[in-house]
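Folded chain entry
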Amino acid sequence: MDINNLSKRAQELWNEWEIRSLILLSLFLQILLIILGNRRKYHTGIVLGGLVWIAYLSADWVTTYALGSVSRSQGGSGTNCINPTPNNIPAFWAPILLVHLGGPDTITAYALEDNELWLRHLLQLAIQASTASYSLFKSWGKDPLIYIAIPIFVAGITKYGDRVLVLWLASSKKFRDIQSEEVDTFQSKFGENFQSPTFVDMSEEDLNEGLKFNKIISEALYLHEAHFLFKMFKIFYADLALSHSSHMASYLILRGKDATDAFKVIEVELGFMYDVLFTKVTGVCSTRTILRSISFLSSTSALVAFSLMVANKCAYTETEVIISYILLGGGVVLEIYGVIMLLLSEWAMFRLSLLLKKPWANAVYKAVHKAIYSDNNKRWERYMCDTT
C-alpha cells in the first residue's frame, strides 16, 4: 500500500473520529473521577494518587480541547437520510462538554492550591460557555436537535458555576473570612450553654445537655460530636483562636472514650473537613437540592427528548446516535450515582438525625446506619506521616 494513501486514510479517520474520541474520553475521565475521587480520602498510595492526579489534570484539558474542536466543525456532512440536514451533532455535544467541565461532586480540587485558582475557573467558565453558545448559535434553526441542547446548557452552567463557588469558598482568604464571622457566634452560643467555668468535673450527661446532644439517638451521637469538633477545627485551620472553654469541651468529648471510639469521631471530623476543602459534598441544604434538581432534570429531559426525536427522524449516522445515547445516558447515571452518594454520606445522615421529633427519621437513620455503616468502615487512612 502506498505510504501516501495510508497517511491520507489515517488523517481522514482522525478527522472523522477526533471529536467523538475526545468527548468519549471526557466522559471516561468523569467516571474515573467520580469513582476514585472520594476514595483517596481513606486510601493512599502512589498508584491511586497518581491515577486521580492524571485524571484531574487531563479532564479539563481534554474537555476544553474538545469544545474548541466542536466550534470548528460546524457545517460538515454526515447524514444518511432522504432529506439530509447539516451535521449538528457536534453542536449538540458542546453543552455536554460544559457539564463535564463542572466536574463530579467527589473532587473539585486535588490539592489546596487548586482552590486558589477559582478566579481562573471563573474566567474559563465565561470562555467555555461562550464557546458552547457559539456552537449552538451557528446551528440554530437548522435542526430541532439544537433545542434539546438548551436544558443541557443550563445544567452545564449550573454545574460549573457550582464548582467555581465551592473553590472560592474553600480558598484561603474566603475561608478565613467566613470563619472570622462564625467564631464569635460559635463562642457566644457556647457561653450561653455553659455558664460555669469549671469543666474538669463536668459529667458526660451535663456536657451532652449543654451541647444539646441529649436528645440525639445513640447511633447518631458520634456524628454530632464529630461535627462539633469539625466546627472548632475549621476555626483553628483559619488560624483563629477559641476560648479555653471550647478547648475543654473537646477534651471532655474524647475523655470518656476508648481509642476505637475516639478515632471514629476524629475520622468523621477529618472527613467533614476533607469534603469542605476538596469536594462539593459539603452538606444537604435547599440550595444544594435546587442545583442538583436542575442538573438531573435537565439531563433526563434531554435524554427523553433525544430518544423521541431519533425515533421519528434518522438524519444522523448510527455511530453518532449511539455516542449521543452514551453521553446522555452516562450523564444521567452519573447524576443518580452522585445523588446516592450524597444521600448516604455523613452529611445527609447528620441532617437526618436532626429531625429529633420525627419517629420515622430515627427509624430510617437506624436502618441505613445498620445496613451501610459499621465500626470497621474506613473514613480515613488511619495514620499520619511525617513530611518534614
